[in-house]
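Amino acid decarboxylase, pasting as requested.
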Amino acid sequence: MQDAVEADEEISHADISPELTKHFRGIRMWLPLKLYGLKPFRASLEEKLHLTRYFYQEINQIKGFETGPEPELSVAMFRYIPIHEDANSFNKKLTQAIQKDGRIFLSSTTVNGVYWIRVAVVIFRTHLEQMYLLLKIIKEKVEELSN
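Structure tokens follow.
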């Protein structure tokens, strides 16, 4: 932008981006699409959907766990139902223990007063190996908290 060139101040990226307001976020999507096409993006999305369904099926097979609705996208909800403790408080402690562990990050939500742990499989670095690790960590933390 010609007015920005003569300014004595440091150049603002807002003055030289195509929108003339903010940095050009769209290029992060546009450039890879132009370079590689849609096929790798579709494959990555399909992988994340499969990983979410895999997690949902596996956590359903572990005794003591309850799941939310079958995932349509890349988010699944689950919780552990302890025998001698309030499920909401236990799952809050479970979420905190998993987050404190630091190897995997899970978030939570409350629906109609019920505390759920959320798995959102969206990071491009997430693959089947991370799902194995997640299931292992969940089992470890449930055991630790139950003792």
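Note for the archive: The CA atoms of residues 53 and 71 lie 7 Å apart.
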